[in-house]
Every structure is written in C-alpha cells, then in structure tokens.
User: Fold this.
Amino acid sequence: MATTGRHRGRALLLAVAAALLPGCLKDSDGPDPGTASYLWHAFYGSSLSDRACDIAIDADDNAYIAGRSQNMWTGPAGEFPLNPHSDPGITPDLFVLKLARDGSYLWHTFYGAAAASDQALSVAVDGAGRIHVTGFSSDTWEGPAGQQPLHAFAGGGKDLFVLKLTPEGEFHWHTFYGAATYEDEGRGLALDAYGNIYVALKSYGTWNGPGPTAPLHAYTGPSDGDTNSNLGILKLSNAGAYQWHTFLGAASVRIEPAAIAVGGGAVYSTGSSSGSWNGSAGQAPRNAHAGGENDAFVLALDGDGAYAWHTFHGSASNDGANGIAVDRGWVFVTGFSNGAWNGPLAEAPRHAYAGGADLFVFALNDAGEYCWHTFHGSAAADDFGFDLAFDADSGPYVAGRSHASWQGERDDKPVDPIDGYTGAADVVVMKLEGGGTYCWHAFYGSSHDDWGQGIALDSGGRLHVAGDSTASWTGPAGETPLHAYTGDMDMIDVVVRTID
Assistant:
C-alpha cells in the first residue's frame, strides 16, 4: 500500500461493497458489467485521528486492518486493546484490528513509543493466520512484557519496523532496520509460501544488516536525507532473521516505494520515481522514464535478491503507482496519472485519460513486457487508485478515491444500488476484466472526505475495502454501520459480494 498526505482527520472505515460476476471473465463477448451488492460497513477509532492503511484476509475470512491511531479506543462492548496505546491523545501508535467475516469485532492492539510517531503501512497474513506488519517508528519500543527487538533501532529520524503477532493478537516478535542518521520507512510487506518476509522500503541513506552485512547492491547517490532516496528491498525469515537487503536508485532521484508482491519465485515492487535509474549491473529499464515529475516504476528481483528487470510507465507530467498484484505470471499495477500516455509501441489505453489526475491500471507479463493500460476518472477533478486485489477467475479489483463522479467506458453510471458520488471525496471500487475491459464501479462515503486505501478478497468472493472517513454515512438503502462513527477521522471496512 501507498501513503498519501491528508489535510483532515478521519475515522477508520471498513465496508463490504461489490459483486464478482462470471460475465467479467472474457473481454471479447461483451460481458454484462454486473451490479455491486453492498453487505455492511463499520467504523472504528477514537475522537481523534485514526487511519487505516491496509487490509489482509486469512484462510477463515477474518479481516485484519492496520494503520495508526492518535488516541486509545475500545471495541463495541468497551473491549480494551490487547496492548495499550503508548501516548494517548498525543502522538500516534500503530494499530491492528481483527474482525470476523460477518464484521463482528474480535480484538485490537496498539504498539509504539511514547512521544514518538508510529504507523503501520502494510499488513499480510500467512497460512497459519500469523500477522505481519510493517511501517515506521520514530523511536524504539518494546513488546508487552519488555521484549527487545530482534535488531535494534538505529537512531535515525525513522526506522522501518516489522511486527509479528499470533492469530489471537499476542506479541511474537518485532525488529527495526535503518540508518543511524537518516529516515527509513517500510512501505509494503509480502510473504512467500515459506513464510519469508519481503519489505519494500524507502531509505534516505545507506545501512548494513547485522554483522555488519553490506547490501547486495549499494545505495546510489548522496545520503543527504533530502533530495535523494533509494528503493530498498529487505528479506527476513519467518522467525525474523535477516537474510539480505538491497538498494536501487540514482543520484538526485527520489524514489517513493508503495507496495510489494511475491509470485512465481519473484519479488515485485512498485511506486514512483522522479527520474530514471539502471539495474544493479547497469541494466536499462524495459521502458524508459518519460521525463516528467514522476513516473510509475515496477522492479522485479528473484527470491535471493538478484536483479531481474525494471520498467517505467507514465506521462510528461506527474504519475505514481500505489498498488500491485501478481497472479500466474501477470503483474497488475494501479495508481494515478496527471496526463495521458501510451504504451512502449504507442499502444493507446483501453479507456482514455479524462483530465486532472485519473486512476490507472496497467498490466505486464512476468518479463516486464507491456500488455495494456487504462484510465478512469472525472475530467475536472482528481481520482487515485490505491490498491488492487486479483481474482484468478475474473480479473482485478481496484480501491481508491475520487473527488467527483464519473462514468465507465460505455458511459456506465456507478452501479446500482449505489446512486453515485456523494461528497468532497468518496471511496471508489472498480472492477476490470483481465484484459482491462471495464465492468463496473461504485462510490461510498459521506458528504466529507472518504478514502479507499486497501482492498482484499475473501474465499467467498466478498471484497473488503479499508480506508477512512471524516464523517458518518449509511449504506445505499440507508443501512447503518455495524459500529458507529466516533469523530474526526475513523477507519472503515466496506464489503462486496459475488453474485452468480
């Protein structure tokens, strides 16, 4: 998942929203775009700012939401957190919230350092239901019983952390990595089939692993904490033991990693880059940087950290990627573009750029070769794709944010029963086929600001969209939330159901 600056406080929102339809399996036979089927939504948080950044689903369809909270809060029946907030009402702590498949509350917990900022940016769950979280911390902290980190906080402005919890929310271990004098953030986390942990990270300066162990590829450019930042990838074992890390970038280029995915023995990361850079042995990108303010990038490594390929896509304006999903040799990326662009051989988008910032989705094969891209959004306002979920039988789903209403590629209105866009910014959920053809989209939210930040698909075909809202709202038929809005910014969850 990616992070984006916010100007107002919000509540964490969790909602169930749309329908997976068999008609969306093919691109060539004019499929019925289908209808979204709202199930429920819920708010959680305090009277201060609470933000959901990512969501994951386990094998039993329980949902795990991770983010940050500025204050302590309790569950629906007054349930206290498993671990208390370190600095209630002052500085934010990271949180993890667990909900059952029907949206009922199970537990929540906080971690962080007093008088310092801590935030979770990405969460993943392994086959045994163990929870893995990454983000950043501004100071060191201990486990509930004084457990020390596996690797110490380096002392810079921020270190990335990885936290592991049991399915019941009990502390397992945590660790820090980063430079002693510069900032580092864990932006995305993914797990392979063996439970190994891969973190996409942003670093303003170089650092070594335990030992010390140098990175597989050295940090590029000045470690100045300002104009230059590298993309890093860190691998840990399922027990938290360091395996390797590597950097990629160029002097005076700012790279903003956003997400990471693992598939077919490879590791893929995406985000935005202010300029071009080469691979670890000088390899040129598959597609050149367009030369604008930022382009979206995709990087592929093997499981041992060896460089495979990288590519850029974007316009001469400002573009960035926020989410990535990988399945059976296909790589899907979502983000935003402030200008139109074509593929490497001048391939036109499946749906044209409208104006402002449009959300995009593009597809690559596992060799980094371009397949297709598409834009969706309004002509005069901004639209962003923040995360992707992929269904092998029907294609990608996108969660994001829209600042105005828009229609699909056949002038399709937002699907019933949602009437349409309702506020200053709404959660948007969109379904595409595997070949990029539009199926449907829906908006959810209040008359204020609402964000869709993370999306996950459960075994029953239900989509869970996590984000945040700055005001309460009801479902399309006036359905009240399972848990009420508490104030400022709350996290939310929205759910979408498969319909045959």
